[in-house]
Specification:
This protein is α/β, with parallel strands linked by helices and about 290 residues long. The protein has a single domain, classed as 3-Layer(aba) Sandwich (Rossmann fold), CATH 3.40.50. Helix content is about 45%, strand content about 10%. The mean pLDDT is about 90.
Length: about 290
Amino acid sequence: MIYMPEIGKHAGMLRQRGYGDLLHKRLVFTISPGRTGTQTLAAVIGCAKNTCSLHEPEPGYAKCLRHVQRSAEAALEFLIEEKLPTICAMDEPCYVETSHLVCKGFIEPLMELGLRPHFVIIQRDLHAVARSFLELNSIPERTPFGRDYMLSPADPCLLETPNWQDLTDYQLCYWYTLEMRQRAQWYAALFDRSGIHYTRFDFADLGSPVAVGRLISACGLEIDENAGARIAQILAEPMNVKDQVKLNAGRQNEVADARVLRHAELFVARTCKASATDDYLPRLCVGRAKAA
């Protein structure tokens, strides 16, 4: 879900629940489609002073992701009852979480609670992200991983995609990357209007200790003189390389011909229609009404 939040609408709720300390923590979250090095990023940011930096910790957003697509109240309940109490209990004054699920319905409730995290918008070549998801057999709406962790064209999304059921699995993965790019643009504009800070980071820079150091500083975090060697060591190690057992060999064969993939991508790009805000919001209301 994505919608125009009422900033600070539930601002008193954190103090009422005893989580007022969250208002003084430095919070950092990511906006990413996934497959963008977020596990490595969590490890290197963890080298910052007084920082708890995690990738996909429990409680996980996936447990309510599907419900959240049509219910902002479900996201708010999850945050208040499960996620925020866990963050509040962390001793460190800085908390970083690099899960790619935060931007799938949980940002707006955070803002309505009066929280002002710093966001890192991670960019990677869409083709590479779509290929990676296909190789993992994570297909929006069609496979368990796709349903649990990815958006679906059946959700109230920014990109309308008529007859999406006729798309191939790879085309659905590519649609997902287009939708996530559209969301990143949406959120950047929302943050600009709301005075919330964010930093853009390119996946290609993840191997550079200098670029990562700049990102850590941009997030308002500090590193000491001894952290450089540790960051370089982390970046030199492969991370989150999926076990071959998890890869579907048949899926890998489907990404062998670059020309076929490019043709499939162009078809999806022509089919998708980016909706203006005034077109999107009525569709969201219809989606909520159907789910009620």
